[in-house]
Amino acid sequence: MRELSGGHAGHLAKHLTRSSRNAANKAEIKFSPEMVERFRDLEEAVRDKGHFDGDVLKNLHDWASGKTGTVSLALGDMVMITQETMNHVQATGNTNAKHALSMLFGAMIAGPDSASIATVRTFQRSR
After folding, report:
1. Is the pLDDT of residue 39 over 50?
2. What are phi and psi of 101, to 5 degrees?
3. Pick from 125, 117, 122, 119: nearest CA to 27
4. pLDDT tens string 91-120
5. Of the candidates 68, 71, 100, which has an alpha carbon nearest to the alpha carbon of residue 84?
6. d(Cα 27, Cα 84) in Å, to the nearest integer?
């Protein structure tokens, strides 16, 4: 398993080649307890407040529960969660949600010397 630290995680999506996109569909990611807590804070900030898509809320709940998923699923969910959170903030003025999202990304991009944000497990193709 390889751990992603804050500064390196942001580069993951930027540098995906065709073969690494395939690897991202197969590699499993498990967020650190700190990241799970940040997802949980965001979920609490938007749950039962209205103006938040139910499917995206379920995805957020999965990550807030410590779910393991593929890297590509995590990246896609992060985009949808961010977009839906910002739509929610714009519609409701919910500054708690905006702060929770900021804290989530702050934990993710804190820098290369920060604690690990996730563990990625890749599977080698058998020959």
Report:
1. yes
2. -65, -40
3. 122
4. 999 999 999 999 999 988 875 566 688 888
5. 100
6. 26
Task: Report the alpha-carbon distance of residue 121 to residue 111 in Å, rounded.
Answer: 21
Contact criterion met (CB below 8 Å) for 70 and 26? yes
pTM, entire model: 0.77
- Which long-range CB contacts under 8 A does 43-51 form with residues at least 24 apart? 44/100, 45/94, 45/96, 45/97, 45/99, 45/100, 46/85, 46/88, 46/94, 46/97, 46/100, 49/88, 49/92, 49/94, 49/97, 50/92, 51/87, 51/88, 51/91, 51/92
Chain mean position to CA 41: 13
Chain centroid, CA 83 distance in Å? 12
End-to-end CA distance of the chain: 20
Residue 41 has pLDDT above 80, yes or no: yes
User: How do beta strands 116-121 and 68-70 pair?
Assistant: unpaired
- DSSP 8-state code for residue 109: S
Q: Specify whether the CB–CB gap between 76 and 36 falls below 8 A.
A: no
Residues in the chain: 127
